[in-house]
Structures are given as C-alpha cells and as structure tokens.
Design a protein that fits this description.
By secondary structure, the protein is mainly α. The protein is built from seven helices and no strands.
C-alpha cells in the first residue's frame, strides 16, 4: 500500500507540475494517462547513474518527449522538464532536513562516520 501511495503522489506531482504551464493549452489540459507516459520517459532519462548528470539527461528526455509526442514548443518543453525534475528530485531535501532534526541526526556526524568507515575499509584492504 505504501508503494502505491508513493507512486500516486509522484504521478500527482507530475500532473500538477505539468498543468502549472497554463500558457500552453496542451500542458494545461494534461491528463493523468499522459502524465504517466511522461513518468515512463523520465525513468528512461534517469538511467544515467551520475546524480547531477542524470538530472540533465532527464530534463532533455522530458523535453524531447513533450516536443515530439505532445507537440509542445521547445522552450516550454525544456522549462516543463526542468520543473518536473526540480519538483521530483529536489523538493524532498527540505523535508528530509527537517525530519533529520526530529530524529536527532547530525549531517556532520554522518559525514565523520562515513569518513571514518572509509578509512577503516582502505586500511583493511591494504593489510
């Protein structure tokens, strides 16, 4: 149920973000089915494993999908692709930071522990 809820929230985020582009009649009247097609295209664009580079790849894939499949103008398609990527990837950061405060997780301590664990692995591999 949790997985279905999360996918419903993601598809809702796609639909709301696309419909925010009211200057384009095609995007303003986007249906849920078409938004799911954009989600599928977005998944194809995010197979590139490097975090920041995959964002650009995803934006370009979304732009090309909107451009060729839905006949959206190139500038609007690029802006919509960037908006979708921003909403789906970066909007969770503030919520995660607030949640980490409630869980008493310090990012500095996590970084120090990670560095310490990396050092232990590298010294163990040398021995």
């Amino acid at each position: 149920m949790l997985s279905l809820l999360m996918w419903a929230m993601i598809s809702g985020a796609y639909l709301i973000t696309v419909r925010a582009f009211v200057a384009s009649p095609i995007l303003a009247s986007m249906t849920l089915g078409r938004a799911v097609i954009l989600m599928a295209a977005s998944m194809v664009g995010s197979v590139f494993p490097v975090p920041v580079a995959s964002w650009f790849a995803q934006i370009l894939v979304l732009q090309q999908t909107l451009l060729h499949l839905y006949n959206v103008p190139a500038e609007t398609a690029l802006a919509c692709g960037a908006g979708i990527t921003f909403v789906t990837f970066l909007c969770i950061v503030p919520a995660g930071l607030v949640w980490s405060r409630f869980e008493h997780i310090s990012l500095r301590q996590v970084a120090e522990k990670s560095e310490h664990d990396t050092e232990q692995l590298s010294t163990g591999a040398q021995a």
